[in-house]
Amino acid sequence: MYYSLRGTLIAADGRSAAVECGGVGYLCTVSAQTYSQLPEPGEEVLLYTHLSVREDAMELYGFSTQVERSCFRMLTQVSGVGAKVAIAILSSLTADQVAFAIMAGDSKALTAAPGVGPKLAQRIVLELKDKFGKGTAEFSAGSLSASAPAVMGKGNRGEAVAALAALGYSQAEAASALSDCADTMSVEDMIRAGLRKLSRNL
């Protein structure tokens, strides 16, 4: 119903932003990532919006990029992930980092968000792993920003991603190739498994 709002930022409090368009003020719930991109009150702002309609309420969500909105919508498709949980995830991680974690099978990264326990994080990865990178240009292999690998940390998986990237693969391709590897595997075994999977995709 509402694709975007372009108008004057009236106020923002960290969780929401009020935007005046044509004399009407619209209150949008925003993530911490979007909040950090907002201009000063009184300046023009553009937010891509999503209208959530429930039996008891209608709530408008605003995003600084279409990529973040797409990630929000994909997250809310998962059973147990409502709009508030999706916003919490996107407040803890950027959209690129969420996509990278899901493609890599790194459910632990998602637990950084309040309200996301290990079981829910694993469900998110399970239900969305095949959707990211397939038919969504925003999250295709090679399109993720350089900041995305930050979610991988310095563990074996992160070292294996770095090793495959050094061989010429994109970090997203490397992460996807390692998505089926158990966290307990050694770096060497992860690299071998990743290379086998990548060679089959050639």
List the helices and strands and how they pair.
Layout: E1 4-12, E2 16-21, E3 24-30, H1 32-35, E4 44-53, E5 58-63, H2 66-75, H3 83-92, H4 95-104, H5 107-110, H6 118-128, H7 156-166, H8 171-177, H9 187-200
Parallel strand pairs: 3-5
Antiparallel strand pairs: 1-2, 1-4, 2-3, 4-5
Brief rundown of the structure:
This protein is of the alpha+beta class and 202 residues long.
Question: Could you explain the architecture of this structure?
Answer:
With 202 residues, the protein is an alpha+beta fold. The chain folds into two domains: 4-64, OB fold (Dihydrolipoamide Acetyltransferase, E2P), CATH 2.40.50; 67-200, 5' to 3' exonuclease, C-terminal subdomain (DNA polymerase, domain 1), CATH 1.10.150. 40% of the residues lie in helices and 19% in strands. The chain is built from nine helices and five strands. Helix 2 crosses helix 4, helix 4 (95-104) runs parallel beside helix 8 (171-177) and helix 7 (156-166) packs across helix 8. The longest helix has 14 residues, at 187-200. The radius of gyration is 18 Å and the shape is elongated. The chain starts with a strand and ends with a helix. The model has no long low-confidence stretch (mean pLDDT 84).
